[in-house]
Each structure stands twice: as C-alpha cells, then as structure tokens.
Amino acid sequence: MKNLIKPGVLLALGLIFPHWAGAAESGNSGTLSFILENDMFHGSDGHYTGGVRGVWVPAPDVPAPEWAVRLARLMPWFPEHGTLRHGYAFGQSMFVPSDISLVNPPLDERPYAGWLYGSVGLGRVSGQRLDQFGVTFGMVGPASLAEQSQKFIHELVGSREPRGWDTQLRNEPGIILTYQRSWREYAALTVLGNRLDFTPHAGGALGNVFTYANAGVTLRYGKHLPDDYGPPRIQPGLPGSADFAPVSHFGWYLFAGIEGRAVARNIFLDGNTFRDSRSVDRKPLVGDLQFGFVMDWSDIRFSYTHVLRSREYETQQKNDGFGALSVSMKF
Predict the structure, then answer these.
(1) 130, 213, 252, 298: which has the highest count of C-beta atoms within 10 A?
(2) Are 234 and 293 spatial neighbours (Cβ–Cβ below 8 Å)?
(3) Which residue, among 308, 279, 245, has the nearest Cα to 109 in the 3D structure?
(4) Under 8 Å CB-to-CB from 204, ≥6 apart: which residues?
(5) H helix intervals, the chain
C-alpha cells in the first residue's frame, strides 16, 4: 500500500511545494499528517461537529521562516537552545447547534460557525522537553466555506440536511498565538513488561478566536514507546506532535489524557468581535478527557482518539463527545 500512496503524495507535494518534493526524492523531506475529527464517532451530530487538518513538518535541515523565528524569540519562555523544528498546517472546523433541522435555531443554542485557517508552528526540542509556538490566521463566517462542506458531507452520506446556516456568525478575520510546553517521560516505569510514562503540559492561546490557559497530562503505555508527544489533534485539544520517531519496525501504545482550560474568549460561543451576531453564555472552565491507541511502522503512524468534553456554555444540555483519526507518513 505504501508503494501506491507515496508516489501520489509526492506528486501533490511537487505541484504545490516543488522544493519540498525535491527533498522527498532525496529521502530527506519530512512528515505529512492528516487529522479528521467528527462527532459521528460518538453517535451525535451537533456542537463541535467536525474538523479536518493537514500538517507538514519539513526535515530539520529545511530552515523555518525568519519572521516566525523572530516572533518566537519575543516569547519569554521559548528556549534559545535545542533542535528547532517547524511545520505548516491548513484546516477547517465546523460548529452547529444541537438540532440542525431547524431553520431558525433557539437563541440559547450555540450558533452555526465555521473556521478556515492556516498555521505556522515552531517546536524546540531540548532533551525531554518540547516547546511549541504557533501563529494561525484564518476566517470565521461564510468565507470559511463550512456551510458548503457540511452540506456536501451530509448529502454524500445520506444524512439530514443542516438548515440553519443562514444564522451563522458573520465574516471576521481571525488570529491566534499559541504556546505550549510539554515534558515527555516526566515520570516513567515498567508495568507488566511494558513502558508507562507521563507527559504533563501547560500553555495558552491569545487571539480574537481563542484566548485561554490550559494544563493537563498524557499517559502512554506500550512495548516500544516512540519519541513523540501523542498523536496530533485539532485546536483546542491536548497537544501532540505531527512528527514521530519509531524505535522499532512495528510498535503500538495506548494513551489517555486529561486537560483543563480557563477560557476567556471563544468566538464560536461569544459571537463576532466587532459586529452583532448570535452568541451564548460561555462557561469559563472546560475539561477534556481523551483516550485511544497508536500504531506505527517504520514510516507510518495511525491513531484513533476518543474525546469527551465538558459543557462549554451555560444552556448546553449535555457534555460533548467526538472521535479523531490521524495518519502520519514520513517521506
């Protein structure tokens, strides 16, 4: 299967990023990841209903954008020493009320909203510590094309049509600055012949789309634990890493994690920043519980994550849940 997949992906990289494709042909290109999150894995269809994200992490010898490096240096906690990695991401997320059959949803339900964005991220690896800094630009509102995406998917799978997109948030450019620090193998031990380690993390986000402080911990358990920080996720969520370094030809591990966020801004609940729009009363504290598994070969990683999220706004009737699939491949 890899022999069929790789040429097609390399051709796509060659058309979009010729210098990266050239590196791929020399055997030193990077890691490509695709993440799909959807509430259908939880048997629901509402609130955070789905998202897709593609991530490209070039090889270490490919220089990061100078403006991003200078911006990272302004962060007082971003280290100056260690291995510097960088990556690019492009994605789309969709948010809807609990009943998508209504043309005019109740005002106490979260509004329809979409988010189309691109990101540049930097990571500095210092021993067993990873510092991540990211800059994300995008659009909220009809320009995000979330309405077209959800309607296309629902028509494709024969699901009911979402009818309330005329009430979605208005167009607004968005920016998010994120910072995260993780300590891999902060504590590690052997249990039943396999390794168990703990990776705590702390960080935050600042912008007109998201502003929050977060902290949590991830546990990994497996025979051969790779040099990663868990599988990648779509923001906001527990941190992971799009790059990975397997320690054997085939490996696996189970993981579980918990995160708490103190939220000061969530445009998908608070509504547009400078224009009138629908909104709901946001809860200041939100928690995520996630668990899943990872399998990796010499240059492919596959993972599934199930996420349980606490209520995000005051009139929300129940907690949310969704699943996340990710596939990463080295070139």
Answers:
(1) 130
(2) no
(3) 279
(4) 178, 179, 211, 212, 213, 214
(5) 2-16, 18-25, 66-73, 146-157, 267-270
Cα–Cα dist 238/229, whole Å: 10
Average pLDDT, the chain: 86
b/e per residue, 95-120, with b = 16+ CB within 10 A? Answer: bbbbebeeeebeeebbbbbbbbbebb
3-class DSSP assignment, residue 158: coil
| Better-scored residue on pLDDT, 289 or 8 | 289
Rounded Cα distance between 167 and 276, Å, is 12
| Residue 297 to residue 295: CA distance in whole angstroms | 7
Q: What is the pLDDT of residues 69-88, one digit of tens each?
A: 887 788 787 887 888 888 99
CATH classification (class only), 30-330: mainly beta
How far apart (Å, rounded) are the C-alpha atoms in residues 101 and 186? 48
CA-to-CA dists, residue 227 to 3, 45, 54, 62, 280, angstroms: 25, 35, 21, 20, 41
Q: Measure the CA–CA gap between 58 and 218, rounded to whole angstroms.
A: 26
Q: Residue 320 forms beta bridges with which residues? A: 309
**Helix 18-25 × helix 2-16 angle, to 10°:** 140
Half-sphere exposure in the Cβ direction for 93 (13 Å, CA) = 21
Closest CA to 204 of 261, 158, 244: 261
Q: Are 272 and 170 in contact (CB under 8 A)?
A: yes
- Token pair, residue 305, equals 């994550």
Distance between CA atoms of residues 118 and 157, nearest Å: 27
Residue written as token pair 């909220």: 140
Say what the pTM is. 0.87
